[in-house]
Amino acid sequence: MSKLNISNIELKYLNFNIKEFKSQGYTYYRIQKQLDKNNKVNVTGKSKEDVKEKYFSKLEEFLNNDITNLDIQKMTFAEFVHYYLFDIVLPSGSIKQGSFTCYNNIYRKHIECSAIGKIKLTELKKEQLQKYFNDLCKTNLKISTIKAIKTFISTVLNYGVNEDYITKNYCTSVKLPKDTTRKKNKFLTDDEVQLIFKNCEDSKLLVIIKICLSTGMRINEILALTENDFNFEDCSIRVNKTLSYCRIFKDDKSYKRRVIVTTPKSKSSDRTVYFNPNISNDIKKYITFQKEKYLKFGRKYTPDNIIFTNKNFDYIGYRSLTYHLGMLFKKCNINASGFHIFRHTSGSKLYEMGVNIKTISEQLGHSNTNITSNIYVHLDKEKKKDAIKHLNTYFESV
């Protein structure tokens, strides 16, 4: 607890409520307190004691006249985003470091020096936001990136509305154009899969691909696997962690680049998945190879060591692995990119075999079955088209 002597504090400052809220499947706590006309404390934490500690720390600053006034009327949108990131989100620890890194990148690249960034928060309207996004659409940014920027800005403005700093989030009514770019294949055919198996000369990459195809796991979930995560008796894998390539921020000026093991994407991503028995020997063979490699270089191996490592026995760089996969696709003349296509292919095969949506959703770690249904709904259309073809005999003589 803060060194502040509570017995000397006015009762009005001790009269506060701790509210519970959830974010990304986890529970957090918040204290919001208007100290005077110009000063408001808004702190969040992972426990009630944590949030009380932060509140009394802010209160101590206020009583010593050190607390920073938040003059919303003069604050630009860029300043407000910075305040939201580094005074609210980062201290609260309410989001993962990887997510915070993404948010900070959006702020630095697309908001800090932008046209809307210079506008006062209270004067930011729909027309200005619409023009901002129209201009973004004229650049070489992908529509998916622009949508991510829109989602982040909307999140910040929602916070402003909830705190009564502004009256409305105008970003929700901004219109974006449809993505008309040629989409790459979302699913691999059986022939393409066999072509990949035949042409992949990298044993590590091949085992990773087979696990991804068999289980539908995300690539960063696979790269965090240890021997202890495998149960070869029932051909299952315990998915309870993932790799995150991020910046660990101390404040807005200092950070360190890190590859860290963190909890899965969401609570539903913490799951047990099953793999095809036919790839058991491939996985066991690769783990044995890793053990021998550790021994050869005088390294200590334990079942808790990650099994997919680089030459220095460290986490694999995602970009390097993706590059080699891209070269494999090129060699096979397959129009695809990234490991996610194996995940989609795995889900589509389960769907085609008649596995129910709930089971597929649990295997893939989706937060709800609607996500699964939306991804594979087009397969129903293809089935209907094929079914109609069987009626050809009725009309051949017409």
The coarse silhouette is globular
SSE class? alpha+beta
Q: Given this structure, which CATH class of the largest domain is correct? A: Mainly Alpha
Number of helices: 15
Which segments are poorly predicted (pLDDT under 50) over 5 or more consecutive residues? none
The count of strands amounts to 8
The succession of helices and strands, N to C, reads HEEEHHHHHHHHEEEEEHHHHHH
CATH topology category name of the largest domain = hpI Integrase, Chain A
As a whole number of angstroms, the C-alpha radius of gyration is 26 Å
Q: CATH homologous superfamily of the largest domain - what is it? A: Intergrase catalytic core
Largest sheet: 3 strands, antiparallel
Number of domains: 2
Q: Classify the helix fraction into a percent range.
A: 40-55%
The first-to-last residue Cα distance is 87 Å
Beta content: 5-15%
Just name the CATH architecture of the largest domain. Orthogonal Bundle
What features would you highlight for this structure?
hpI Integrase, Chain A; 398 residues; 3-stranded antiparallel β-sheet; globular; 47% helix; 15 helices; alpha+beta; DNA polymerase, domain 1
Tell me about this structure.
Helix 3 (77-92) packs antiparallel against helix 4, helix 8 crosses helix 12 and helix 13 (357-364) crosses helix 14 (369-389). The protein folds into two domains: 6-173, Tyrosine recombinase, N-terminal domain (DNA polymerase, domain 1), CATH 1.10.150; 190-387, Orthogonal Bundle (hpI Integrase, Chain A), CATH 1.10.443.10. It is an alpha+beta fold and 398 residues long. It starts with 10 loop residues before the first helix and ends with a helix. The protein contains 15 helices and eight strands. A three-stranded antiparallel β-sheet has the order 1-2-3. It is globular. Strand 4 and strand 5 (236-239) form a beta hairpin.
